[in-house]
Every structure is written in C-alpha cells, then in structure tokens.
Amino acid sequence: MKNNLNLVENFYQNSLFTFDSYESFCRIDTIYESPKDVRNVIKIFSENNKPIKFAFEPKNGLVRISLKTGAVEESDILSSLLSINANKVEGYQKFFEKNGFFFPIFSDKFVEIEAEPLLAVISRMRATVELMSQISEIQRKNYEKILTVTLALLLSSKNSIAIGSNKYESCEHNTLYNELDTASQINDNESSLRMDNQYNFIITDSIFGEYKVSLDEYRSYKADYDVLNPFWRRVFHSYFHHQHANKNERLIIEVLFHSFKDIGRFEFVTFNSINFMEEPRWENYIDRFKKAVLDVARIVVAEEINSNITGVYPEYDSTIMEPRWRVESLMSALYFSIFYMKPNLELTRLCENPKCGRYFKVSRTSLKKKYCCTECANRANQNRYRARKKEVTI
Ligand SMILES: [Zn+2]
C-alpha cells in the first residue's frame, strides 16, 4: 500500500492536471412510447462513498486512480471511451460506473439523460480525435475522410444535455455562422460583381485564384429553390458577395462552396460519409483544394476543443504554493487531455482490424503500427492469407 501511495504521489507531481470525482450507479431504460418511438434513457446517480481521481500525464493520457486503494486503475481513459461501440448505448454503462458521469450529478436521486444527444456528443469527440490524427498522418492522409469529418463537425446541429438547471451544449462553429450573418447584411447586387467579356463573374478565391461562374449559372442559383436550400443560399451569397471576409471565414466559405458545387451536391453528412444527391466528382478534389480543406480541418478541431475546455480554470493552490488547473467535469478533463495531445509526437489511431474498433496511441517513431495489439495483427494476417487462398482456389 505504501509503495502504491508513493507511486501515486510521484504521479501527481508529473501530471499536468488532476480532477476529482466519484464512481456512479448507472442503468439504461428503454422507453416504448409508440412502435416508431423507442428510445433509451440513462439513469444515473453519483456514488459519493466511492471517490476517484483523474490525473493527466503526457505518456499515459488521462489516468483513473482509486482513492480507496491508491492504485492506478486504468490509463488512457480517452481511448477506452472512444473504443466503445458507438451505436450501442449499453457499452457506456460500465464506463460511467467506473468513471462517473461526464458532468456533476446528484448522489441522492437519479438523473435521466436521453441517450441520443449523449451518443452524438461522444461521436463529436471521437470525430475530433480522428480528425487530429488524420491531419497529422504523414504519408497516409485520407483526404476524403478529412473532408467528410470536417464537414460533419462544421454542419451538424448543436447537441445539448440537461442536468437539473445546468445545460451542456456542444460546439457551434462561430467562424462560419458569424460570417453567414455578416454576409447576410450585404445586398444581393450582381452589378457589384466583376465580369469578363464572356459574361462570367470573376470571384476572388484564395484556393483557385480567380474563379469564374457564368451569369446563367449564377442566376440559376438564385432562381431555383430545388438547387439550393436556405443554408446553401447563405453560403453561396457569402461566396459571391463577401469576397473580402477575413482569412479563416473566407476559407471555410470557399471549402463549403467548392465541396457542394465542384464535388457534388449533398443532402447531409455523417461522420462516416457524405450523402451526395449526384455522382461525386472526386476528380475536382485537386491538391490546392485538399490543402484548403486541411486548413479548415485545423480551424474546426481548434473550435471543438476550445468550446469544450471552458470548464477549466487556472487556480493558485495556497497549501502547496503552486499553480494548478481546476477542472469542472470529466467532459472538460477529456477535452483537456485532447488539448494536450501532441500530434507531432503521437497519434491516436483506430485499429485496422475491422472487427476491433479500438483506439490506441502510436508514437511518431513507430508510425507503421496499424493494429492495437498482436492478436489483431495476427487475425488480420490470417484473414489476408485466407482471402488469398480463396482467390487461388477460384
Ligand atoms: Zn485491435
């Protein structure tokens, strides 16, 4: 026990922040409102006789320590959370029992949380980590994936989780929405646009230099409500009429405009795919465009992280006469651990065994590692061997 406590003490000295919480009692109810409305509700209360502590240490990530035994119970909590099957709410019950809920809850009564927005919030976190890793991959950047996740984070609606009178709200991408508001103040005056002698408007575009759109095409956007819904009308309006928006705002508008116009019109985006309404023209996704998408991905990641660490404050500890961070919730602690991630030193990757689904850390010095463990690597090898054998027999 003494050794353990020493270990833990050293751990605190090496950690960048700590956070205190409790284990929880958690159950999942399925509510059958009607045949078409079946939903899951998480019922949870805090077990205040089971205190736990989280500490963040760069090498081990966010680590959970039992205050009863002083033992380090689990390291890299973030990867554990992201590895849980995203569609099965049952998987999260164990996580919350061991780690407590994302936000402070009552100890004397159940809090009821709708599963759907909660799962959406976790998906956002997973997407943010995936995007960070994708941006930092050196040779194996998947630009289609980067565009998909960037658009999904940028365009998905805000999720909120209410606990008593408190409300958590997921990130809203203000760089985009502020620009759309600013641009909506500008008149829709086509005579203010530059035109060449072939009746093309010339748009100043930081990705393509001067980009041309014919007068006919321009007018079809304005006339046809089937082509552009109100959201895309605002994006197109900003693209044509606010060409001198500031740099980041302009870049986001340009990436949205060219994704929709040049790659393909789409109805909605999930974290896994863009739901195109026409055959996507990926041949238009050229290098200059990819570079711009990468820049927008960086802005989106920063906005997601910044919006989720508002519950972290610097504080001066009078007992030890040292500065420290006060972290208000497990959610802030998780995002604060993402904040401290150093993609130039290590990445959080999804295991390439399709049946696994686990996330694991890879250091930049061993980027070849594709599987979370040797079991997964062996299984994938066997599958490849079997597939080859089958090919040969056929
Ligand atoms: Zn694996």
Q: What's the gist of this structure?
A:
The protein is α+β, with helices and mostly antiparallel strands. It has 12 helices and 15 strands.
Tell me the layout of helices and strands.
Layout: H1 2-14, E1 17-34, E2 37-57, E3 61-66, E4 72-74, H2 77-83, H3 90-99, E5 111-114, H4 115-136, H5 143-155, E6 160-163, E7 166-169, H6 174-184, E8 200-205, E9 209-214, H7 215-223, H8 230-241, H9 247-263, E10 266-269, E11 274-276, H10 287-308, E12 312-317, E13 322-327, H11 330-339, E14 346-350, E15 359-363, H12 374-393
Antiparallel strand pairs: 1-2, 2-3, 2-5, 3-4, 6-7, 8-9, 10-11, 12-13, 14-15
The structure holds zinc ion.
Residues 351, 353, 356, 358, 371-373, 376 line the site of zinc ion (ZN).
Explain what this protein looks like in three dimensions.
This protein is an alpha+beta fold and 394 residues long. The protein has 3 domains: 2-141 and 155-170 and 311-346, no CATH class; 174-304, no CATH class; 351-394, no CATH class. It is 42% helix and 26% strand. It contains 12 helices and 15 strands. The protein has helices spanning 2-14, 77-83, 90-99, 115-136, 143-155, 174-184, 215-223, 230-241, 247-263, 287-308, 330-339, 374-393, and strands at residues 17-34, 37-57, 61-66, 72-74, 111-114, 160-163, 166-169, 200-205, 209-214, 266-269, 274-276, 312-317, 322-327, 346-350, 359-363. Strands 1, 2, 3, 4 and 5 form a 5-stranded antiparallel sheet that branches. A two-stranded antiparallel ribbon has the order 6-7. A two-stranded antiparallel ribbon has the order 8-9. Helix 5 (143-155) packs across helix 10. The radius of gyration is 25 Å and the shape is globular. The mean pLDDT is 90. It binds zinc ion.
